[in-house]
Amino acid sequence: MKSFLLSAITIALLACCGLQKAGAQENKYLNIVFIGNSITYGAGLKNPVREAPPVRAAIYLGKQPFVGTVRYSNQGVSGSTTVDFLPETHTLFDKVTAAADQFKDEDWATLVFSVMLGTNDSAIKGPNGSPVAPAQYRKNLQVIIDTLLERYPQALVVVHQPLWYSPNTHNGSLYLEEGLERLQSYFPEIRQLLEHYAASHPGRVFPGDTEGFDYFRQHYRETFQAEDGNSGVFYLHPNAGGAQTLGEMWGKAIYHAVMNL
Fold it and tell me: Is the bond preceding residue 131 a cis peptide, omega within 30 degrees?
């Protein structure tokens, strides 16, 4: 009986120590500003305010261990390119900083900028500045990120790869196979940019989702909206289920960045 009691006490003490050890990790409070285009905005969804990828990312993050309150601002704008978000334009970038400034006094929370741009940059014609050459795409992103890092010295930036779209995509803008190929040429530019920041701003700029492109290419019929276009039915924007999947992909990348501070 004594042996049994000692064993029970030992197990209880070990469990207690384990809880104390786990409790040593303080909760992270997050303020996230999402920068993007119509995919970020939630175009075509019945209720973007509740269904868009930023919403789903915030919900996912709020359920993770050691994450406290998650607040966010969706600054996705349909049709936008990296050119539209350049600070010198004083349009979309000013809206991003206005959103971030709402969080500036909350020094107990981590400010995160989640960036996914490139879909409209890759178009043959239509969106502002398109087609954007790969080197220029990287330069534009660097200008945007450099300005954010300077203005918000404690902030993190997470850069996601843009998503696959069907090679017949042609709505008010023209994308097609040429655009899809150009889109993929942006991926090594993002990797180079991340390597640059790993040296110049260690622990500030992190890789985002890299799995979405292949995932949605394989599952587009179940996860994308079928849209009538000038070159047939095309697939560009996630449906409600796809938006949830994408949001969770973003959430995982953001969580990894935040927990590695």
Answer: yes
Whole-number Å distance between alpha carbons of 176 and 152:
38
Q: Domains of the chain, with CATH numbers?
A: 26-259 (3.40.50.1110)
Determine the 3-state secondary structure of 256 from DSSP.
Answer: helix
Other CB atoms within a 10 A radius of the CB of residue 98 amount to: 12
| Alpha-carbon distances, residue 47 vs 43, 52, 243 (angstroms) | 9, 8, 11
- Nearest residue to 214 (alpha-carbon basis) of 172, 164, 162: 164
Residue 203 Rama label (left phi>0; alpha psi -120 to 50; beta): left
pTM over 0.70: yes
Q: Tell me the C-alpha distance between 96 and 146, whole Å.
A: 14
Is residue 71 classed exposed, middle or buried when 0-12, 13-18 and 19+ CB atoms within 10 A define those classes?
middle
79: left (phi over 0), alpha (psi -120 to 50) or beta: left
H and E: helices and strands count for the chain? 9, 7
pLDDT 10s digit of each residue in the chain, 261 long? 444 333 443 434 444 444 333 445 789 999 999 999 999 999 999 999 999 999 999 999 999 999 999 999 999 999 999 999 999 999 999 999 999 999 989 999 999 999 999 999 999 999 999 999 999 999 999 999 999 999 999 999 999 999 999 999 999 999 999 999 999 999 999 999 999 999 999 999 999 999 999 999 999 999 999 999 999 999 999 999 999 999 999 999 999 999 987
- Cα within 13 Å of Cα(160), Cβ side: 33
**Tokens at residue 41, please?**
């905005």
